[in-house]
Each structure stands twice: as structure tokens, then as C-alpha cells.
Amino acid sequence: MSFLQLTQGPLWYLASAVFVIGVAWRLIGLLRLGRGPDRSVARRSGVAGALKAIALHSVPHGGNLKRTIYHFVTGYGFHLGLFTLLFFAAPHVAFIKGLTGLSWTPLPRWGFLIAAEAAFAGLILMWLRRMTDPVMRRLSDADDHIATWLVFIVMLTGCLALQEAHDSLRALHLLCVEALMIYFPFSRLMHAFTFLVARAYTGATYGRRGVTP
Amino acid sequence: MKDLAETPPRKIDTQAAIDRFLAACNSHVGAYLDACIHCGQCSQACHFHEATQDPKYTPALKLQPMTRVYKRHKAPLSGIKRMFGLVPPELTAEYLQETEELIFQSCTMCGRCTEVCPMAIDVASVVALSRQAFVAAGLGPADLLQAAENSRDKGSPLGLTPEVLRDRIEWLSDDNEVEIPLDRDKAEVLVTVSSIEMMKYPDSIVAVARLMNAAGLDWTISTKGYEATNFGVLSGRSDIAKTMITRLTDAAESVGAKLLVIPECGHAYGAMRWSGANILGRPLPFEVLHITELVAKLIRDGKLKLKQAAESVTYHDPCQVSRRGGATGAAREILAAYSSDVREMTPSGNHNWCCGGGGGVQAMASAAALRHAVFQIKINQVEATGAKTFVSACANCRLTMDESREVLHWPREVQSLVEVLADRLEG
């Protein structure tokens, strides 16, 4: 079995299983912790509050944009770039088609370049901020740096493998992706899912009070 | 700030803190602790960070004591992570002492950080639960805890016993020629008081009485349950929190009240309106309104007639009434009836800056210097409006601001919204 076959076969299935089971385990485990009923008389709907909070916390509000503009620009640059690459880079579209049979129009090369530049710039700028800003330095731990570097390496190897000129580069990219997938459920990368739960809980609590925090 | 290390050594029960943290880790709290991405944006919304620019006051750091316990003992997959040594270290007495200031002196539980958090983490609720764990361990500021014990033993944090309440109501009633009903057998409305008002700002009580009488309400104050402030909630003493809620509930039930009115006190409103039924373990059999909500309703219903003033006024929103209470609009309705020149601070309403003394911080002598530093934000806000009159609807905010303005030599008066309103009553 070649290195590429290993990363496309057994390692891929192992990483996928860890990712799916791990994420599900964490989310179900979190929800199973439960919470007591809120016996206060609601002023407004908690469900509407949850939905509003999920939407509203995607953008700065409450007059805070100026204060958080760096995070807003770099955060959106990175996340939009990353998800555009993940779902619309030509090799990924082909990979998804191979897995699921589903297919859609991939990004043209210029689109790929813009998305990649936004993702790299956002990630690097966020990490620089983490290393230099006194608040972020104080908050950051090993998980923050490991997650950042893993994502960076995955994106870098992805770019190297773009031309599909060398199997070893594709295999290296896949290996890095698999490492990220295995690390994901154990790490703060889980915020990709838990952000919905946190926003919904706060939104529901304050929505009942007639406030959208 | 007073050096916390100067306090005498305390016996710290770390296991009690761990147990309390674990009991508090429900799905709600777990979601918050899992979702924090350490971006630090919350620091931009915190008045303690704003006033000092010290990163140690970053709200996300206040999650960390509970996060340690949750991620070590209770978080899903923590068992596997523990096998590889990837969980946080166990809580220690030293760590609890190091983080004590974050949980008590430097958090007013104002909720401003939640607004800016991309995950919408409600840091204030985690701090409230964390206080319970710290207190279980034997930590927490002595003066805050004493205020809670005074509430349990004497009826109020400031020594407002039922006898003192009776005496002061008699005095206020006589001196101001206003009827203040006390211990009526039956009444539609039970009015509660804040001992801060009764002991330091008694004119507020008179003003409330004038408004209630002018509207023709069937009301009373009760010596069975009168203290609206709840230092049990603020100090992390859940047993005392329940005692205070039970007293008010029993008093309201005994007079058959359909409405319980919370005076000008922010946290008292949150404690009774939003936490009361949950602390008590059953729904409250009466409606709870903040005094501003009631007065706004009375104005709306035409039961209070006011002579509108022309002088400019600005309003400080108590965090627990507005941002965390949802009664932001009530004060605006009152202000519109009071003056034709209402000048909002920037920011105001649900986005206001805290006075610096909420969450029991007002009662902590060790937090005084920090509070005063924070008050400069409010001074700047008020001055920018150019308004002549500066009002609020929380006696705790008022006391905090009065103390700080004296220290900072700011020559403005902080007035009570109900007091200025009562002065504008027609007839």
C-alpha cells in the first residue's frame, strides 16, 4: 500500500470516524448535562430570542464595531476564505463527488487565489494578534496555537497539492487533514459547533426577558 | 486596591469548590465553557479593563476557574483526554486565591461582555455560579458575606430590622405628610424597599409613596418581607438568596398581593423578577414589576399626571434593569413624560456602561479604588450630554456614583428618577 493509498484509505476512514463520533459525543454529552426549567414568567419568546442571538452575534453590534474591527475583518477573512476553499476548490469538489456523488461548479483559479489569500491573511493576522496583544496572550493556551498551526499546515499543504502534480503532496495534505480531523473533537475547534449552542442558550435566556444581548 | 494578600490566612476547602463547580456545570454553562475561543474581544466591553487597560480584567479569564473543573472532570471526552494528560490541572487553594479578585472585586455581572462576545457567552451567569463555589471553599470578601448574613439575621444588609423599618416609615410619613401604609392585612400591591434607600436616600421612599397614592393604588409595605436587595444572590450564598426570596413571597401571599413592586434597585429586580421563581423552586403567584415599569404603566394609563419640565436630563441605565432585565423602555417612557429635553448618553440603554458598583462590588471595600477608576467613564458620558439633570433608577448605582464623585471631586448630583418625577406630580 502506497503512502497515498494509506491516507486515502484506512487513515481517512479512521479520521472520519474519530471526527464524526467525537463531535457527536461532545455535542450529545453537552446537551445531556441538562438544565432546570426556567420558572420565571417570560416577557417574550425564548425561541425567537435564540434565533436572534444566533444571527446577531455573527456581526458586531451595540456600538462595538470600532473596538473589535480587527477581529471582525480577520475573522471573517479567515472563515469565509476557509469555507470557500473547503467546499469550492476544484480538488475538493471532485473529492466530495467521489464520496457522495454530489457535484457543483468549482471555483475558477482566480477565485481560489482570492479565497486562499483571505484565509491565509486572516489566519496569520489572528495568530499575530494572539502573540502580541496582551489580552490574547494572557488568554491563549497550547490548544489555541496547535489548532492555528494545524489549520495553517492543512491550508499550506493544500496549496502545494493544488496542481496534483505529485501524489506525495496530495498524500501529505490528506495526512494533515486527517490529523486535524482527529484533533478536532478534543479541541477548541469544536467552537464550529458549540457556538450555536452557546448563542442559543444566551438568546433564549435573554429573549424571555425581552432583550437581545 | 487593597492588597488581598494582606488579609489573614483562610482555611480553604478546595474540594467543596470543586463539588460546587461540578454541580453548576449544566449544559448551559458547559456550552459557554466549550465555546470560548480566547479572542479577548470581551475585554473591549468591560469597564474594569476600559478604566485600567490591565489585561487581567479580561472577562474571559473569569470563566477559567470553572473551566478548569469542567474540562478536568465533566466535559464530554475529558476521560480520554485525562488518559493522555491533556486536561487542566486540579484546582488548588493557591489558584482559587489568585483568581478570587476576578470573581468578586472585578466583576459587576453587568453583562456587557456578552454583547461583544461572538459566542454570546453569558460571563455574568458563570461568575454568579463561581461565587457559590468560592464561598463554599471559604473565600469571598468578608464585607460582602457580612452583608448577606445581616440580611438573613437582621432582615437587611444595612441593619434595617422590622422595628427600624416601622420607625423610619413613621418618621418619613410624619415629616413629609404622606401616607405610607405598613402591614395592612390585605393589599393589591406589595411595595418592597431597598435598605440603601431607606437608610441613605429616604426621600425615594417618600417619592414612591406619593406616586402610589396619586395613582390611587391599594398598596402596603410589609414587615414580614420588605428587603428587596438580595445579597444572597450577590455573595454566592444560595441559602440566603432563597431566604430573602421566600420572605418577599410569603409577605406578598399573606396580603393577597397580585403585584410585587421592586424599588429603584437593579439587582433586586433581576433577583426577584428573573431568578425568584427558580430560586424558590415554584412559579411566583404574583406579577413582579420594577418601579419604573409600574410608573410607566401608570403614566400610560393616565393615572399619573405630570408637569413636564423643560430642563435637560440624562439617564444612567442600571444594567440589571435594562441590559439584563429587559425593562429599558420603561425609563424612557417616564423620561419623555418628565422632560422635553432627554439626552441619551453614548452608549446607553442596553449598551450602557456600568456604574462600577453592581454585583455586590459596591459593598466590597477592597474594590473601592477600582470602582472610582471606572466612574471616570460615567463622568465622561454625562459631561458629553451637557444635560443639567442626571438621574438613575437604582439606589446601588446612585450610592456607587455618589461615593466615586466625592472621591473624584465631580460636582454633579446623581438623582433618583422616582424622586424627580414625584416632584413633577400635578395636583
From TrEMBL, chain A:
Transmembrane residue ranges: 12-34, 69-90, 110-128, 146-163
Keywords: Membrane, Transmembrane, Transmembrane helix
UniProt keyword Thylakoid present: no
Transmembrane helix among keywords: yes
Protein origin, superkingdom: Bacteria
Record's protein name: Nitrate reductase gamma subunit
Species of origin: Allgaiera indica
Higher taxonomy: Bacteria, Pseudomonadati, Pseudomonadota, Alphaproteobacteria, Rhodobacterales
Automatic annotation (TrEMBL), chain B:
InterPro entries the UniProt entry points to: 4Fe4S_Fe-S-bd (IPR017896), 4Fe4S_Fe_S_CS (IPR017900), Cys_rich_dom (IPR004017), Helical_ferredxn (IPR009051)
Ranges where the 4Fe-4S ferredoxin-type domain occurs: 27-56, 98-126
TM stretches of this protein: none
MF GO annotations: 4 iron, 4 sulfur cluster binding; metal ion binding; oxidoreductase activity
Entry-linked Pfam families: CCG (PF02754), Fer4_8 (PF13183)
The entry's keywords: 4Fe-4S, Electron transport, Iron, Iron-sulfur, Metal-binding, Transport
PROSITE patterns: 4FE4S_FER_1 (PS00198), 4FE4S_FER_2 (PS51379)
Coiled-coil portions: none
Entry superkingdom: Bacteria
Keyword set includes Nucleus: no
Keyword 4Fe-4S belongs to the record: yes
PANTHER family: FUMARATE REDUCTASE IRON-SULFUR SUBUNIT, HETERODISULFIDE REDUCTASE
Protein name: Fe-S oxidoreductase
Organism of provenance: Allgaiera indica
